[in-house]
Amino acid sequence: MTLTPRPGILEVAPYVGGEASVPGVNRVVRLASNENPLGASPRAAAAYSALKDDLHRYPDGGATALRQALAEAENLDAARIVCGAGSDELIALLVRGYAGPGDEVLHSAHGFLMYSIAARIAGATPVAAPERDLTADVEALLARVTARTRLVFLANPNNPTGSYLRAARVRALRGGLPEHVLLVLDAAYAEYVEEADYAAGADLVEACDNVVMLRTFSKIHGLASLRLGWAYCPRDVAEVLNRLRGPFNVTQAAQAAGVAAIADKDHVARARRHNATWRSWLSERLSAAGLHPYPSVGNFILVGFPGEPEPGAEAALAYLKARGILVRGMAGYGLPACLRITVGTEEETRAVADALAEFMSEAGDSA
Ligand SMILES: *Cc1c(COP(=O)(O)O)cnc(C)c1O
User: Fold this and answer.
1) Which numbered atom of ligand 1 lies nearest the CA of 111?
2) 194 CB burial (10 A radius; 0-12, 13-18, 19+)
3) Rounded distance, CA 340 to CA 333, Å?
């Protein structure tokens, strides 16, 4: 007998994050991972620094103060909040808790990649439902529910497309699911959404026994490095997650920074305003350059390239990289003619817009 992992593990294509450096380039413009260009709240950074003399202490395994702060800020029941080392950990724990070999995990075709990765790791089968106009299609999802379906993941807004489902459509999705299926609403970008018909999903969690909402501190709170996410759950699901998670899965630094970040409402408002301003500016500039930016309610834009015979997304990715600008290639998401660009600082956003305009005009010259 040789040493062998469980069936399926070696078939999992590892998640590849956005690139963060270019050899030989000192100042890299990082627009590949949807990070907050304004950084974290100074109050969160101070709370993090204040812990440096307590590194020998175990964290509060119940994340009590953080759950309390979240509950107060969002008017939720603290007992049904479970914190994780990023929402990625919670995605993996939910799949592990509810699905295994022979079970199906449903997601939309261009949904966040971690759903299918987590399903495969658990030995379950990921099932992709087609989308309509790069937006999750409720009827297509419901049509793929079988007796084996255990979870449905919906990123709302979705990464990488930037599209979202109105609250009424999410209710229709949940209404069409059998009771044995857990609907996971991944609202990583909820704070950026300004549309009145959007809801992150806490109300559905309150109303149903089979809906979970996931949130993260990695995006608008600018704390991606600390790995902090949370789930709002029905009581039974919270009990499952609390059994599965490590007893000290969230560091004290993350908990303290999280509490401070929630309290800094001005920083969040500033980040939201910055994003709205520069997202629409970037979108207009991309259109003017002859590209096709898709509508986005997140902190990033998916942009389509004309492709054959003109050079397409892959050439643009290399062109930007040679200039020290990193954005995300989309082949792994089944969108090879697109790139995903995070809204950066003013300087970064202008730099990527200028470079893509040059790229397109050079392509036009040589055509
Ligand atoms: C960034 C992102 C997450 C958050 O990941 P963390 O593990 O919390 O950093 C979750 N879901 C989606 C759709 C995302 O884009």
Assistant:
1) 13
2) exposed
3) 11
Pairing of strands 125-129, 149-155: unpaired
Between the CA of 54 and the centroid of ligand 1 the distance, in Å, is 28
pLDDT of residue 309: 62
Q: Are 204 and 237 in contact (CB under 8 A)?
A: no
Q: Output the pLDDT for position 10.
A: 85
Question: Residues with beta carbon inside 6 Å of ligand 1?
Answer: 34, 86-88, 112, 155, 159, 186, 188, 216, 218-219, 224, 229
Domains of the chain with CATH codes: 9-39+266-366 (3.90.1150.10), 42-264 (3.40.640.10)
Ligand 1: centre distance to CA 188 (Å): 6
Ligand 1 pocket mutation, candidates 189, 216, 220, criterion most atoms within 8 A of CB: 216
Query: H/E/C letters for each residue in the chain?
Result: CCCCCCCCHHHCCCCCCCCCCCCCCCCCEECCCCCCCCCCCHHHHHHHHCCHHHCCCCCCCCCHHHHHHHHHHHCCCHHHEEEECHHHHHHHHHHHHHCCCCCEEEEECCCCCHHHHHHHHCCCEEEEECCECCECCHHHHHHCCCCCEEEEEEECCCCCCCCCCCHHHHHHHHHCCCCCCEEEEECCCHHHCCCCCCCCCHHHHHHCCCEEEEEECCCCCCCHHHCCEEEECCHHHHHHHHHHCCCCCCCHHHHHHHHHHHHCHHHHHHHHHHHHHHHHHHHHHHHHCCCEECCCCCCEEEEECCCCCCCCHHHHHHHHHHCCEECEECHHHCCCCEEEEECCCHHHHHHHHHHHHHHHHHHHHHC
Residues in the chain with pLDDT values less than 70: 308-311, 366-367
Q: Rounded to an integer, what distance in angstroms lies between the CA atom of residue 102 and that of residue 123?
A: 8
Q: Ligand 1: distance of its center to the CA of 88 in Å?
A: 6
pLDDT at 24: 80
According to the model, what pLDDT value does residue 367 have? 58
Only one residue has tokens 């209710």, namely: 171
